[in-house]
Write a structure and sequence with these properties.
Length: 357
């Protein structure tokens, strides 16, 4: 199996002409009856060997965690030596399976293990230094805010060495956590309420990550390079950060304040997110908001008497809608993109621009 990134590499090395690569892409698009950009490709599994290597790598990482736990068995809080050993092992395995073999799934798992290991190590050492703090002061909160910042620095080093697309999203998540923690430290941990303070911060951070994702997307409108994969993971990170606060404010997540107005609000927001997803040619927003729509429609069918079939009817309605959208994604997207200003269409993925023109 060859990815578009492999085709681009072949063109850059001279093994394949740019014209031949473009002809091959056009042939594949014609066979699938959908432009390549609209397929939203990203590398995950190139063969069963990816799964085989991933299983072995996870076993080694679990072993490292167990060894680290044995070093400090009575420690309250995350074991720092487990995190350190996990991060070292993940980096070491990435030197071969990521840098040399370019295996997709193991690279993703090893990156997440490395970043998670660094975070666990830093948090564990911080807890060792300050103990289990139930009511932290501003100064201690500021120190703890440095943990995600250092984790973001570790993700940056990993990116410089291995160029795994998901790394940028991991670093962005760490920076968002740093910013939120610093704001909490300035305001004071005792003055924080999750609904009135943290959720707006998460929403704003989600908008920021979404803007970063669009910057990466716009730098590769043809979606032929690793930059498109980076944008995919950033969109996947931004989507729940945007969707969860929106639907929480509509009263859906609590499950107690939901009513007909909330259900209508959920559907309106989901349609709006769908239009954005169509315009930018990314499905992450639709997937992240799906659980809230399912919950709202289940309540609606239950309210109107379809108690025994409410779950089935909800699954039927949403499943049919998503399948229809997937089957006619390209013409629906063409209709949406045609309504946008010309200067904005030019900055969207190439397939949407080409179809709109």
């Amino acid at each position: 199996m060859y990815s578009d990134d492999d085709l681009q590499s072949a063109v850059e090395s001279g093994a394949l002409s740019a014209q031949a690569a473009d002809a091959f892409r056009a042939h594949v698009s014609a066979r699938h009856e959908m432009p390549a950009g609209d397929e939203e490709h990203f590398r995950l599994i190139t063969g069963f060997n990816d799964i085989f290597v991933t299983i072995a790598a996870v076993m080694i990482l679990v072993a490292m965690a167990g060894i680290g736990q044995a070093i400090t068995p009575s420690l309250d809080g995350p074991p720092p030596f487990s995190g350190a050993l996990i991060a070292i092992a993940a980096w070491g395995m990435a030197e071969f399976f990521t840098k040399k073999r370019r295996m997709a799934l193991p690279s993703i798992v090893l990156l997440l293990a490395f970043v998670g290991g660094v975070f666990e190590m830093l948090l564990g050492f911080m807890v060792m230094a300050f103990g289990d703090i139930d009511h932290p002061t501003r100064a201690v909160t500021m120190l703890f805010a440095g943990i995600p910042l250092l984790t973001a620095g570790a993700a940056w080093l990993h990116w410089r060495n291995f160029q795994v697309p998901i790394t940028v999203a991991a670093g962005a998540a760490a920076l968002a956590a740093t910013a939120i923690a610093l704001i909490v430290a300035v305001v004071g941990p005792g003055n924080i309420s999750p609904d009135g303070f943290l959720l707006p911060l998460v929403f704003i951070a989600g908008i920021g990550v979404f803007a970063l994702a669009m910057r990466w997307d716009m730098s590769d409108t043809a979606r032929r390079t690793r930059r498109s994969d980076v944008a995919f993971w950033l969109h996947l990170l931004a989507a729940p950060m945007i969707a969860h606060p929106l639907f929480h404010w509509l009263g859906v997540t609590g499950g107690t304040n939901i009513g007909l107005a909330s259900v209508i609000g959920v559907l309106v927001v989901y349609v709006a997110l769908g239009l954005v997803a169509l315009a930018i040619d990314r499905r992450a927003l639709l997937v992240s908001a799906l659980a809230y729509v399912l919950f709202a429609l289940t309540w609606l069918f239950d309210r109107f008497g379809a108690v025994e079939l409410n779950v089935a009817l909800t699954a039927l309605v949403i499943g049919s809608a998503l399948l229809t959208l997937s089957a006619f994604w390209t013409p629906i997207r063409r209709t949406v993109v045609e309504q946008l200003p010309a200067n904005l269409r030019e900055r969207l993925p190439a397939s949407g621009f080409a179809l709109a023109a």
